[in-house]
Structure formats: C-alpha cells, structure tokens
C-alpha cells in the first residue's frame, strides 16, 4: 500500500468512525474473538487451569479497576479495537454469565489463555483448544439464529469481524520447553503443523458463513521479558533465535493467508502485523513515551505472569503507563493502545 492510499485509508476510516459515533451504530454488526491470553477476557476464570489472571494486580487500571481475567493492567488491544469500531461494550467471554441473550448479537469472545493453533498446547494447560473454540462458536451461531432468525443472523455472521490471535503459547509455553516436541520437529516443521490448523480453522469459519477475518502475526517472542530470562542464556538482549522463528512463522502465515484468500471467494482475510510495531516499542521506547521495555511492571519484571504475578509480588511498579510490558509475557494497556491504533490502520478493508 502506497503512502497516499494509506493516508486516504486512514482518512476514510476517521470519517467512518466519526459517522459511527454520531449515528451510534458500530461500523460492523459484530466482533468475535478467538485465540490465547493476548485476547482472553475471562474464559479461563472458571476452568480447572492454573493459567488465570482474575486476581490483583491484574485489572487495576481497567474501567472497573477490577480483575476480569485479562492478562493486563487495563484494556487489551482488542478492547480498544471494539471501541474504535463504535461498540459500547466489549464482546463478553463466552463462558461468562454476560454471554446471554441480546448481548450475543454484537459478538462474543472465545479466547483462552495458554491455547493455540496446536490443540495439545491447550490440553497441557487445560485451556480451551482452538477446535473447542470453534465448537463454541457453532453453538453461539445457533443461539443468535434463535434470537433474530436465520436471515438477520447470516448478516451478522458475514458482516461481523472475526479476530484470531494465537501462536505465542504454542512456541513459548510448549515447543521451546517440551523436549518431545522440539526433538521431533524443527521450528519450521512445527510452524507447518500450526499452519495446517490455521487453514482448517479459517475454512471452517468460512463454511459457517464468516467473510471477514483478521489474524495477528506472532510478536517478537524473543523480546518478551520472560523469554529473555528463560532462553537468553544470561544475556539482557532479545533472543535472536526466537525472533527469527517468529519471522519465519509470520512469513508462512502471510503466504498461507494469501492462498486462503484466493481460494475462498468473497473472503476478506487480513494479516495484522504486530511484530514490527511491538519491536519498535521495545527497541525505541522513548519515541513513544515509554522508558522501560526490558523489565515488566509486575513483580521483578523478569518472569512473572499469571499466578506468579499476584498481590504479594515484590517489586510491582506503581504506574504502568511507561512500561511496554505489564507482566513477563503481556503488553501493558499503554502499549496495547498503540498496537490497536496500528491494527486499525491495517484493518481498513475489513470495515469498508
Ligand atoms: C505479506 O505479504 C505482502 C505481499 O507480499 C506484504 O506486502 C506484507 O507486508 C506482508 N505482511 C506481513 C505481515 O509480513
Ligand atoms: C501515571 O503516570 C502518568 C504520566 O506518566 C500520569 O499521567 C498518570 O496520572 C499516572 N497514573 C497514576 C495512577 O498515578
């Protein structure tokens, strides 16, 4: 995309957003979300899993100042996305009590921390596998059909945006620490397995009438504070091996997506690059008003996430706004806001 069409895209988007705010209608009928902890808003709260974030200090800067299950001090990137699209509420966690009746008509969130493209990643942590997320989505569709009838429901499914954000847990919480896996497969072959699962997922959504899908790339996994601590061999720098695996994965994601897009008529499939925007924040924090991108806010900032990031963690920062990372694996609300603005510019074709 050239600079001028990019500017034009942003301008049109701005006009569309203003219009949507004025008219009170969101730009698309619904927003549905799938994936891992980067986008989970509380589906893990009631599961028998250790991977949760429904206790302080998680959520301390959220709208309600309460933990919700989001792996963040405040809003996720997808929460900002929902706001930018003109929604007045966030898609509810599908397993929560909020996911009922009329609330379902503007979408739902099926994501589960420690899930991934590879179903066995989710099984390891008793999270909701992508296959099960799809099964819940089918159930969701039948509920929507019951409420508004088939025709209106079809318009919601085809017009709604469906976002998928996965892969980090497959690598960090499974492949790199699982000798069975990393002896059996090279990173390249493991990525191919994940791509197969991704293709199947997209084809299944398409078969269910979905026409607008966005998928995020892997972040620079080698720069996550916990990854530097675990895999950096004592160095304080991003782990090159992990970042190069992420880049190769992202290339495959891109070419697989282009294939899917050309084989499935009428499908709009956008690959959202979060690798470069997050890497920019990490390598040039002060350009964006941050001062800390190596250490996370929670605890010592080197490893903590989930249970290890809790109310008694020693060292937790008092103000996360200048930290790129909230915990050892997840960006802060301030970083999420910047990432979400980037997503918005990249996602114009899903709205028009
Ligand atoms: C995907 O490929 C297209 C065309 O080859 C390129 O313009 C785009 O930047 C790539 N996106 C990512 C996220 O790598
Ligand atoms: C955190 O710091 C920012 C400026 O860096 C300030 O605007 C904000 O009010 C502070 N938040 C809290 C909770 O102290």
Overview features:
352 residues; mainly alpha; Rossmann fold; 4-stranded parallel beta sheet; 13 helices; binds 2-acetamido-2-deoxy-beta-D-glucopyranose
Question: How would you explain this protein's 3D organization?
Answer:
- A 4-stranded parallel β-sheet has the order 1-2-3-4.
- It has 13 helices and 4 strands.
- α4 (130-148) crosses α5 and α8 (187-207) runs parallel beside α10 (240-263).
- The protein is globular and about 60 Å long.
- It has one domain (27-351): Rossmann fold.
- The chain is mostly helical and 352 residues long.
- Bound molecules: 2-acetamido-2-deoxy-beta-D-glucopyranose (NAG) (2 copies).
- The site of one 2-acetamido-2-deoxy-beta-D-glucopyranose has 3 residues, from loops.
What is the number of helices? 13
Order of helices and strands: HEHHHHEHHHEHHEHHH
* Strand content bin: 5-15%
- Biggest pleated-sheet summary: 4 strands, parallel
* The CATH homologous superfamily: SGNH hydrolase
Overall number of strands: 4
Family: Belongs to the 'GDSL' lipolytic enzyme family.
Keywords: Signal
Protein name: GDSL esterase/lipase
InterPro entries: GDSL (IPR001087), GDSL_lipolytic_enzyme (IPR050592), SGNH_hydro_sf (IPR036514), SGNH_plant_lipase-like (IPR035669)
């Amino acid at each position: 995309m050239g600079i001028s069409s990019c500017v034009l895209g942003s301008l049109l988007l701005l006009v569309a957003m203003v219009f949507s705010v004025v008219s009170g209608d969101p730009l698309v009928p619904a927003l549905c979300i799938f994936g891992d902890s980067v986008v989970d808003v509380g589906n893990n709260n009631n599961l028998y899993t250790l991977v949760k974030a429904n206790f302080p200090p998680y959520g301390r800067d959220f709208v309600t100042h309460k933990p919700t299950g989001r792996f963040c001090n405040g809003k996720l990137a997808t929460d900002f996305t929902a706001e930018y699209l003109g929604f007045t509420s966030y898609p509810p966690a599908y397993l929560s009590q909020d996911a009922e009746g009329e609330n379902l008509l503007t979408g739902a969130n099926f994501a589960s921390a420690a899930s991934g493209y590879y179903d066995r990643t989710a099984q390891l942590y008793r999270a909701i596998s992508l296959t099960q997320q799809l099964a819940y989505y089918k159930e969701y569709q039948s509920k929507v059909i019951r409420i508004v009838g088939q025709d209106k429901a079809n318009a919601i499914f085809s017009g709604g945006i469906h976002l998928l954000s996965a892969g980090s847990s497959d690598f960090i919480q499974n492949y790199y620490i699982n000798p069975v896996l990393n002896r059996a497969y090279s990173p390249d072959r493991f990525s191919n397995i994940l791509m197969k699962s991704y293709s199947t997922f997209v084809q299944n959504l398409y078969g269910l009438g979905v026409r607008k899908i966005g998928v995020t790339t892997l972040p620079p996994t080698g720069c996550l504070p916990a990854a530097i601590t675990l895999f950096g061999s004592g160095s304080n720098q991003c782990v090159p091996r992990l970042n190069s695996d992420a880049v190769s994965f992202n290339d495959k994601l891109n070419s697989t997506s282009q294939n899917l897009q050309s084989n499935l008529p009428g499908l709009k499939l956008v690959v959202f690059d979060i690798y470069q925007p997050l890497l920019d924040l990490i390598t040039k924090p002060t350009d964006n008003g941050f001062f800390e991108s190596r250490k996370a806010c929670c605890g010592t900032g080197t490893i903590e996430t989930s249970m290890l990031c809790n109310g008694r963690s020693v060292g937790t920062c008092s103000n996360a706004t200048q930290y790129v990372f909230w915990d050892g694996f997840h960006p802060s609300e301030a970083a999420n806001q910047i990432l979400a603005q980037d997503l918005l510019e990249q996602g114009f074709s899903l709205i028009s």
